[in-house]
Design goal:
323 residues, mainly alpha, Farnesyl Diphosphate Synthase, two-stranded antiparallel sheet, 16 helices, globular
Length: 323
């Protein structure tokens, strides 16, 4: 598998600056929030979302260097993403994320919720200081989409009647919206053409959907060590994803197991077996590949560059996580 970081060569130096700036953006006026920020932003992570923003910034600014606004947009994108993870971990009661203790397991739920709120507020303040109304609108939409996606997921728990369209819409709200709108915002700051700006949005949209579908497949095929949580966690909590929705078309008994919320001892294991015995995982792979291809198609009008090639390769990387 291609490591994500090897795709980031054109923006390697930019990402180092970003890592230094993230903790400073929070400030050290609030010791617990500063400690939380150091824990979160110091933990590393792949930084895929800000890397995409920086790659798009460079791909649309070939004749000149990227601006401080591009850099700040990348930092805001990572801060919004991190804030959403802090809240997700509270909702999911996760003790560990990617092998690192979650904020709520270290400081308690109250501090974790407030820390997530604080990071959202900080990102909004820095966003306003970009003095670009269109960019403010784009990233503010993301904050609303996160909440809508989380509520939609909660309302649809164990609902075997949800459609693939509903699942994709929820995946957009929870994952693709940030990538799509921050990609578009990078094009807006670069003052590129309206056509390319819309293509950048669609690139982020389809890449984000592919990313989420792959994550949902890995919930069934990945190891606990790889996932940082027990395999089948989404299904256990009633979150029905693409592999399950496809499997339900083939395995009627799966519906009964889900609708009784795995009340009996072996229900979850039976459900996992039925999903693995169906075409659900393979069809979900094909769906992810479809969206990855659509993402790449939307880069066609960008002039050739190392950054553009890295954006193309990002789609291959997303799919390669399955193998």
């Amino acid at each position: 598998m291609t490591p994500a970081t090897s795709l980031f060569t054109p923006v390697e130096a930019d990402l180092r600056i970003l890592a230094d700036n993230l903790i400073q953006l929070v400030g050290n006026d609030h010791p617990i929030l500063y400690a939380a920020a150091k824990h979160l932003f110091g933990a590393g992570g792949k930084r895929i979302r800000p890397a995409i923003v920086l790659l798009i910034s460079r791909a649309t600014m070939l004749q000149q260097d990227i601006t401080p606004r591009h850099r700040r947009l990348a930092e805001i994108t990572e801060m919004i993403h991190t804030a959403s993870l802090v809240h997700d971990d509270v909702v999911d009661e996760s003790e560990v994320r990617r092998g690192v203790s979650t904020i709520h397991s270290m400081f308690g739920n109250r501090i974790a919720v407030l820390a997530g709120d604080f990071f959202f507020a900080q990102s909004s303040w820095h966003l306003a200081n970009l003095d670009n109304l269109e960019v403010v609108k784009l990233l503010s939409q993301v904050l609303m989409d996160f909440a809508v996606g989380e509520i939609q997921q909660g309302l649809n728990r164990f609902d075997t009647n949800i459609s693939l369209e509903t699942y994709l819409k929820k995946s957009y709200f929870k994952t693709a919206s940030l990538i799509a709108n921050s990609s578009k915002a990078a094009g807006v700051i670069s003052e590129t053409s309206p056509e390319i700006i819309e293509h950048l949005y669609e690139y982020g949209n389809h890449l984000g959907l592919a990313f989420q579908i792959v994550d949902d497949i890995l919930d069934f095929t990945g190891s606990t060590d790889t996932l940082g949580k027990p395999a089948g966690s989404d299904l256990r909590s009633g979150n029905l994803t693409a592999p399950v929705l496809f499997a339900l078309e083939e395995k009627p008994y799966l519906e009964a197991l889900i609708e009784r919320e795995f009340a009996q001892d072996d229900d979850l294991n039976q459900a996992l077996t039925l999903i693995h015995d169906s075409q659900g995982i393979q069809r979900a792979r094909e769906l992810a590949a479809h969206h990855a291809k659509l993402a790449v198609d939307n880069l066609a009008d960008l002039p050739p560059s190392e950054s553009r090639q890295a954006l193309v390769s990002m789609a291959d990387y997303v799919l390669s996580r399955l193998y």
